[in-house]
Amino acid sequence: MDLLLWGVYPYVSVTLLIAGLVWRARYDAFGWTTHSSQLHESRLLRIGSPLFHFGMAFVVAGHVVGLLVPMSWTDALGLDDHAYHLMAVSTGAVAGVAAAAGIGVLVRRRLRTPAVRKARVRGDRLMYAVLLGALALGLTATVLNSTGQTDGYNYREGVSVWFRSLFALSPDYQLMAAAPLAFRLHVLFGFTLFALIPYSRLVHMFSAPLKYLFRPFVVYRRRDPRLTSNRPDRRGWERVS
């Protein structure tokens, strides 16, 4: 079971992610959208959306640093383990709470506004459940680890090393099997979320409006009243070519 969960399932999740993105780009390009419901309700959206997006941006950045940067690198920079964990816990907790609060506001908005509730797509409920579960488990793991309830477990010597071993195609799944339960559940929910991204509204996170940087300028010209004062105001379909 440990081999399946920590040595096979991560690759299955990434395969579903890549295959889903390719399929959506080729066969469902017009469905590659957030399915915005701003027209139905905007007050709660203005609160929940920034909280969720900015919180998730910092959460992702913290995971990238914590999982991909070896402890020897930060030690070489003069950042000891205590200072690193203090910085990671303080910033990670704030970002996690902000993201969880944001998604909570968005879910409440969806439940209380009938028009927004009707605008949901298939898989939204599962996606929201997995996303909320991943955030809650991440915060739980952070609290348990920072309060010493995980017997001094250092995820940088366990989870992070296992995660980097996935890129070498030689997963050290025993390291993950020895991690506390909260960490294991958090990672499991995280990889499940990866697999669901292409098949939900979260697919928009892979969109970038790069074409806007290279599109031609739109020129707006002000109409000269001296040239149009004697011209009758006709509708477009009444003009004679």
List keywords for this structure.
241 residues; 10 helices
Structural commentary:
By secondary structure, this protein is mainly α. 63% of the residues lie in helices and 0% in strands. The protein has 10 helices and no strands. The longest helix is centred in the middle third of the chain and has 32 residues.
Radius of gyration from the alpha-carbon trace, in angstroms: 24 Å
**How many helical stretches?**
10
Report the biggest beta sheet as strand number plus sense, adding barrel if it closes: none
Work out the number of β strands. Answer: 0
Shape: globular
What is the SS-derived class? mainly alpha
The helix-strand sequence is HHHHHHHHHH
What's the rounded overall pLDDT mean?
A: 83
Whole-Å distance between the termini? 76 Å
In percent, how helical is the residue content? 55-70%
